[in-house]
Amino acid sequence: MIPRNALKQLSPFLWEIPQTWRHDMLVPARVYASEKMLDQILQDRSLEQLVNVSTLPGIVRYALAMPDVHEGYGFPVGGVAAFDLDTGIISPGGIGYDINCGVRLLRSSLTKDDVVKHLSAIGKTIFSKVPSGVGKGGTFDMKAKALDEVLNDGAKRMVALGYGEQEDLEKTESGGQLESADASCVSVQAKARGHDQLGTLGAGNHFVEVEYISAIYDDLEAERLGLQKHQVCVMVHTGSRGLGHQVATDAIRNMNKAMVRYGISLPDRELACVPFNSSEGREYLKAMSAAANFAWANRQVVTWEIREAWKEIFGNSETLSLVYDVAHNIAKLETYEVDGMHRKLIVHRKGATRAFPGQPVLIPGSMGTGSYLLSGLQDAMNISFGSSCHGAGRTMSRTKARKNTNIAVLLEELSAKGIVVNAGSREGISEEAPSAYKNVDDVVQVIGESGIAKKIARLKPLAVIKG
Fold this sequence. Notes:
Blueprint: E1 8-11, E2 14-17, E3 29-32, H1 35-41, H2 46-53, E4 63-70, E5 77-84, E6 89-90, E7 102-111, H3 112-115, H4 119-129, H5 144-153, H6 155-160, H7 166-170, H8 188-194, E8 207-216, H9 219-224, E9 231-238, H10 241-258, E10 274-275, H11 279-314, E11 321-327, E12 329-338, E13 341-350, E14 353-354, E15 360-363, E16 371-376, H12 379-383, E17 387-388, H13 398-404, H14 407-416, E18 420-423, H15 426-431, H16 440-449, E19 453-466
Parallel strand pairs: 3-4, 18-19
Antiparallel strand pairs: 1-2, 2-3, 4-5, 5-13, 6-10, 7-9, 7-11, 8-9, 8-19, 12-13, 14-17, 15-16, 16-19
Helix pairs in contact: 4-11, 5-11, 8-10, 10-11
């Protein structure tokens, strides 16, 4: 555990563990947080994990943690790190098992008053249309060639098959496709786990949420995105399902064997990595990109399913338009100015959202509390590798949340707020109780005060659909 006196305060919301704190650190470790948040963050191993990240070969500037940071596998969740392409590494632990877990926001032409009387039907219909739960398959059962096309082309393939519109791709990060993908680098086991999971939600913290805009903070930006107060939106949070998990598992196993050949020594074996320019590194990038494409395709099909449910309730004249889709578990090749020179880096974001200038940034809160739409600021490119938080961030494990949550009381509280819940299991509800998370308002305040992204709108839930 990192003691409080190890951190130096650089600004009201930025703290640094200096490079001199530990002999093997190559760069400082920085965390964005308020003083109150810092006290909570220091209770787990997240900052110790961040210090471990700072020891990885080729790391540039600093290892970063966002205000929603908490302990993860290898890297902390909420971690950001950029590595030089020639001297640096690529690490599955810096991306996560759920490759391209991400969020998309859809907007309707309806207001809160228009949908309140339909909430029960909305929840039940979306729950029936979008398969959810651990290992749950969907209506797709793709053979090898069809799956490879999805892995290589992502959401673009699903739009070509009629499950969306060109506009969806234009409003998706990277157009819903990483061109570095190569389906041949994805194992048979991973493909076997993913062949029937397109258009499925999964379990854990994944959800579909019908929300309404409760506050607008920037009228011009909101208007640009087609948003206004009281408007009803739908948020989707899911990723690459079992396929992405297996891609990470395969890579970690292979890298643990390969590290010896490259003379890489780690303070934590969960940080398994290889040089970016090694054969293993290039193969993982291709497989990770394919899993990312699968996730974008998955969210595209889930969107189609939600649109079908929406038509069933409101008729064909009511549509859902995509506001934006953004990943928060991914590694991407991006260019930044470092020491006066523009350098291409491999930026790892694990539980962190890209926040390029003017780009929508989607920040879901805990179940029943609300979410935010932000917009990236120019300073983010200089201070956080164009990265923001990705949510509220857990304060307790799922096991502890199950023990501490009275499901009946929680459901009563949500009902009292006018929130309809459809879920496949009561355990899934208790694991995601609001008490298991930080206050999303506090997290977003840190991001705004730090100059990373600005608030555009706040959304409150009306109906929650979970696995």
